[in-house]
Amino acid sequence: MTSFLNRMLPYVWVAVGIASVVTLAQTFSGFLRRIGLVGWLARHGMLLSGVLAGLAALAWLLVLLGALRRADRLPRFLTERRWLMDILDRLTNRAELERRMSQEVESIFVDAEALASKLKAQVVGQDRICDDLAAQIRRRLALKQRGKPVGVFLFAGPAGAGKTWLGKVLAEALGRKLLHFDMTQFSSGAFAATSLFGAGKGYVGSQEYGKLTQGLRDVPDAVVMLDEIEKAHGDVHKNFLTAWNDGFITEKSDGKQISTTRAIFVLTSNAAVDILVDLSRQYANDPDGLRRGAVEALRAVGFAPEVLNRIDRIFVFEPLSGLDIARVAALEIERMIAGYGLTVAQGGIDPQLLFDLMTRQKKMGAAASSRDLTRAIEEAIADSLIAAKEKGARSVILVQSEGGVHAKIAAPSEPHA
Ligand SMILES: Nc1ncnc2c1ncn2[C@@H]1O[C@H](COP(=O)(O)OP(=O)(O)O)[C@@H](O)[C@H]1O
Ligand SMILES: [Mg+2]
User: How far apart are CA 376 and CA 367, in angstroms?
Assistant: First the structure.
């Protein structure tokens, strides 16, 4: 008998609720008539009462559902988990199925020549590397079953030769996202790498995914750049071995495996530059010989053999010299001008400006990097560009004189004599 009364309780509440709404409505309407709102309501009442009735009905439906749920009397179809759960979670191991699918990658066909020319248009003086890289990428993207990243490439060579730049240009040319990691941050040991791979349960940060695991989870075909990898601790290097050997990385916070089979890894290094540049000249036409020599040289500066083993190809960048420095400077100037919303007229960079920049670089000797060049360009031209922009310029001609660089206003399509 008590259980029957208990079960009826929600319905009693509903009945009491409806009765009180009716009573309230009557009282309320008497009140409205007295303050003269009835006339107004007669005109707008339909709309208002419709809205009020709707809201009241919704509120009561929610109260009713809540009461039924508390009394455990909701119909089964509303409560059964089966309706909310993925059929694959219920009937099989979905994670394993997804892992197998991720190993089976689509063959992708890229035009190596078109890719190489895109790279060469932006990266000066490294034509051989651009051709070779494009050919490697074409071959590897066409493989259907690999269980490993598309490629693990090491760009080695002097600072300011365009290693980081080529990584960026490659990602852009392939239309892929770049995940750029400055590896100098991870010099203190494996623990430093928690920001890449996440932290184990109970550690600080274990609520969040690591930057690399999250990045590849969200964009599996990214270009992953490990910039200046030689500066990271050797233990951090080893964290990448499963990524390169087995085709996955493990997120520490929840133990999930994230596929690396569609990613391209680009490592850059400034280590052992002199030996590597010598070797690359010596073995210009013998990639295997170059590889052997380079592996030995890199082992000597602290790279672990198992890490070097997994690098598919080592590209050695030549230091930039001669006209190539002028080319980089010209590209840099063009980019900077574009940064101010301007264009440079054809033939619009005074050769004297480029010559001065080259002389300056030469004077700085081996220590000169492209970053110094960028800074020098900014110092030389930024103010005059701003002045030209203020005067309403769209296109400019840069003229070098005793007093510095002057940006003359050119008509947008006017070629400079
Ligand atoms: N070979 C190059 N071609 C075009 N621009 C270059 C080249 N090398 C350097 N630069 C310019 O100089 C900047 C710094 O070069 P970067 O790629 O960072 O050198 P690093 O070899 O030390 O990684 C680049 O962002 C780019 O603008
Ligand atoms: Mg760099």
Answer: 15
Interhelix angle 38-70/2-34, rounded to 10 degrees, is 170
- Cβ of 328 less than 6 Å from ligand 1: yes
Residue type, 411: A
Closest protein CA for atom 24 of ligand 1: 165
Q: What is the pLDDT of residues 363-389, one digit of tens each?
A: 876 666 777 888 889 999 999 999 999
Q: Is residue 407 within 8 Å of 385, Cβ to Cβ?
A: yes
* Residue spans per domain, the chain: 2-81, 103-316, 323-410
pLDDT digits (tens, 9 = 90+) for 82-134: 556 788 888 888 888 877 776 666 778 889 999 999 999 999 999 999 999 99
Q: How far apart are CA 280 and CA 355, in angstroms?
A: 29
Task: Name the residue with the closest Cα to ligand 1, atom 7.
Answer: 162
> What is the value of pTM for the model shown?
0.72
Neighbours of ion ligand 2 (CB under 5 A): 164
160 lines ligand 1 (CB under 6 A): yes
Q: Please give the Cα distance from 291 to 366 (Å, whole number).
A: 25
Element of type H or E holding 281:
helix 273-282
Which architecture does CATH list for 323-410?
Orthogonal Bundle (1.10)
Q: Output the CATH code of domain 103-316.
A: 3.40.50.300
* Secondary structure (3-state) at 207: coil
Indicate if ligand 1 lies below 6 Å from the C-beta of 123. Answer: yes
